[in-house]
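Input:
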Amino acid sequence: MPFYRLLAPVLAAMLPCVSLAQQDTQKEIERYRQLLQESNPAELYEARGEELWKTRRGPKSASLESCDLGLGPGVVKGAYVQLPRYFADTDRVQDAESRLVTCMVTLQGFTPEEAKRNPFSGTGVPMLTTDPFSGVGRRSVMTDIVAWVASESRGMKIAPRMSHPKEREAYQAGERLFFYRAGPHDFACVSCHSGEAKRIRLQTLPDLVHSAKDAQRAFGTWPGYRVSEGELRSMQWRLWECFRQQRFPELEFASDASIALTMFLAKRAEGGSFDAPSLKR
Amino acid sequence: MQLKIVLAFALGGLSVVGCAIRPSDSEVESATARMLQTSFKPRGQATVDRLNQDEVQAVCSLYKGEPPEAAREKIEKAQQTTIRYPNSGSLLGDWRQGERIAQSGVGKQFTDDPGRPAGGGCYNCHQLAPRELSFGTIGPSLYQFGKLRGSSEAIQKYAYGKIYNSEAFSACSNMPRFGHNGVLTEEQITHLVALLLDPDSPVNK
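Output:
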């Protein structure tokens, strides 16, 4: 662990000096990704997440081992690629994170507020080690568990469901949200995510409107370990960060809008290979 | 309005294949509105009223950024009337300050200090001075913008107006309305005009 902690920021700091010309930079980033692919720090999050899944926690002192992620109680293998989906017990469409919140509440006895309190790792505030939703330092229990749940779908095909009316409604609302312009910069998701090989500065952007391949690669690589931040980031975090940059108010963790957008993106990525947790710049 | 919504979805090209029963458009519309209301919370300067759309934002969302000719003309005409030019002084400011504004992408995010002036973030989307290799490609390259067009009063007015309110020239443009929406001051915009048009600006070297 200390090895990665030290290595990541150093390598991240090196990234900008890798090369002067952009094409070379892009190539170097690819090469660098490959170099680290076999020792992705995401594995540490996954291992912690698996441990947390099996650990008795909360007022009810229960593990998450009977949590139903859509394929039946306790079935984790292949669950992530079929999310978001409709759950009858909550009468809601839920993604992995919001479903984990449900399980933490119903099985472990946490309040929804507790379960949602520390959704992202390393957000700058060192959490108390006694906090049940963080570990030592800046960890996030939610992030760790999501990393493990996602890893149990690695190599599978992205296959969101679209049979329940609420699933279709989530997809269509997600589509509307994707095109929803607002705020002082007039930005919508589509402002940056339409058009071939567009970039912000040097960062290439997936074309989520016209390219199934881009959508598959984008959806299929979250969660991902972000070298530039030295943290593992989830899809919920990706959306939260996009809206921050869109100059919107703060997206609530595991909110209906975040789930609807995830549904839209999952559907756009349908049939693609799920390759997460991945390694990102 | 209802017809427009139907049309927009028909044009969308992102149709849901294989669905026997689809929620009606009005159901989806109200579900979306409910989600917007319940899924965002104010933080710092980013208050929830930012979710309310003006007419341009609403029309551009409805048509997914590609409005029909009539809607396009209507937007551009209305937005033209919003452009405010400085009361006095030249539209051509200081390109050095313009370069700093073009480099800076801060401003209006809930993590930004509202007391600090915002940047234009121009390099996020455009190529400008050739020595800056880290530029985006969402907008066209503006390298040699002035060298190719000169710096006549008409070009100055155009460049100022385009930065002030891009929707006045190209409806549903991806470019923010920097002046109209109060992201940049009139003075800051004149510095960006200089960055684009001043013969001494690195953009025109």
